[in-house]
Amino acid sequence: MNMNFDFNNPTRILFGSGKLNELGNQPMPGKKALLLMSGGKSAKVSGAYDRTLEQLHKAGVEVAEFAKVMENPIKEMVMEGAAFAKVNGCDFIVALGGGAVLDSAVAVAAMTTNPGDLWDYMNGGTGKGQALVHPGLPIVSITLTAGTGSEVNCWGVISNLETKEKIGFGYPELTPVLAVVDPELMKTVPAKYTAYQGFDALFHNTEVMMSNGVNILSETIALSAIENIAQYLPRAVKDGNDLEAREHIAYGSTMAGISIQLTSTTAQHSMEHAMSAYHHNLPHGAGLIMISKAFAEFFIEKHACDEQFVKMARVMGIPDADKPEDFIAALLQLQKDCGVDNLKMSDYGITADEFMTLAVNARETMGGLFLANPCPMSDEECAGIFEEAYR
Questions:
Q1: What's this model's pTM, rounded to 2 decimal places?
Q2: What angle (nearest 5°) sits at the alpha carbon of residue 41, between those of residues 35 and 43?
Q3: Strand 165-170 relative to strand 155-160: parallel, antiparallel, unpaired?
Q4: 3-state SS string over 164-226?
Q5: Burial (Cβ within 10 Å: 0-12, 13-18, ≥19) of residue 276
Q6: CB-based contacts of 314: which residues, under 8 Å, 6+ apart?
Q7: What confidence score (pLDDT) does residue 27 get?
């Protein structure tokens, strides 16, 4: 076991049902907030929108709303949001939404204070890899979903439709200063998206466990999160008003935000980002589910991290697990229990002649995650995983 780790997370986390009601009592990092949202429908249905405005008013904060974030957020929207923040004199961001909004906040925060284009500062692919000239705007994150853990880390994933790239963007100084994780706000998330988001959180943690950088702290956090998600996600999918289930899934998601900062995800995430870069309508969690079995089997066949798979299987409902294949059994059962066991790549327009294109794109845009794999994976082997998962 690796006993070394480097942990610095400056985010204050208000976690628990009803915690949004405490936002107005917190010190705010500015006087005028860019309220960053998607179309705003989900925030209004859940009541989060009105409650957030009430709390910001209580804190003496002015608000300018920008509600144009889409699923799989794109560069042009980020630049538009940054321009809007500048024109309106916003000095911090309140990100109210799910993973797309939280991801976008990191990029908008950076581009509000820095010159040029987002891709000037993007590492990987056609990005120019420049360092930020100025610190970004401070971020307050209020998550409405349990999936990404982005409320507590400095990373966001942004798409460039022109170049067909979907790349992670982030700098430590962009980590949110305050995060509100209130499971009451998540009760209106539809069952399908509850499942997709829950599996995204699960895979953040399973990939930490597979990673060659796993350490004593990240493993401890990841196993706790995996156990909670595996036990409670079927309940949350079945009944969105099951607040106990929502609380446990939210915990697993927020812990993922911490565990991936301590270690990292693996090429499973690079591979899915390639899939949705070329097929923009593919939800991230759904893509991860599609390739998850074949991805894990690749490492099981190579006996790259057998003990880690056994540990995960034991907390996923097979307490006497003694072989890595038990993880596959637990994973498939969880997918079945959540009604996502029949997802097909072909339903989203992915074709069999794309596998090598996707493999090359995954490495070119987010090759760093391949370095976290427990053993090497060639482009041909990566394409083979897509082929194995295809249906």
A1: 0.94
A2: 55
A3: antiparallel
A4: CEEEEEECHHHCCCEEEECHHHHCCCCHHHHHHHHHHHHHHHHHHHHCCCCCHHHHHHHHHHH
A5: buried
A6: 320, 321
A7: 95
Determine the angle formed by the axes of helices 325-337 and 306-315, rounding to 10 degrees. Answer: 40
Q: What is the pLDDT of residues 267-318, one digit of tens each?
A: 999 999 999 999 989 999 999 999 999 999 999 999 999 999 999 999 999 9
Nearest to 206, CA basis, from 157, 267, 161, 156: 267
Query: What does the pLDDT read at residue 115?
Result: 97
Chain-centre distance of CA 182, in angstroms? Answer: 17
β-bridge pairing 92-97 and 32-36: parallel
Dump pLDDT digits (tens) for 132-142: 999 999 999 99
Reported confidence tier of residue 148, pLDDT bands at 50, 70, 90: confident
Would you give the DSSP letter of residue 27? P
Question: Rounded to whole angstroms, how far apart are CA atoms 141 and 52?
Answer: 11
User: Which residues, in sequence order, are bridge partners of residue 156?
Assistant: 169
Please state, in angstroms and rounded to a whole number, the distance separating the CA atoms of residues 88 and 33.
Answer: 9
Q: How far is CA 328 from the centre of its chain?
A: 22
202 contacts 210 by C-beta, under 8 angstroms: no
C-beta of residue 117 within 8 angstroms of C-beta of residue 16: no
When pLDDT is cut at 50, 70 and 90, the band that residue 40 belongs to is low
Q: What is the DSSP letter of 123?
A: -
Q: CB within 8 A of 353, min separation 6: which ones?
A: none
Q: Residue 66 in 3-state DSSP?
A: strand
216, 160 Cβ separation under 8 angstroms: no
pLDDT tens-place string over residues 65-112: 999 999 889 999 999 999 999 999 999 999 999 999 999 999 999 999
> If DSSP codes are grouped into helix, strand and coil, which group holds residue 45?
helix
Best CA proximity match to 213, nearest among 9, 381, 1:
1
What separation in angstroms does the CA of 344 have from each of 65, 90, 269, 287, 359? Answer: 37, 43, 18, 9, 18
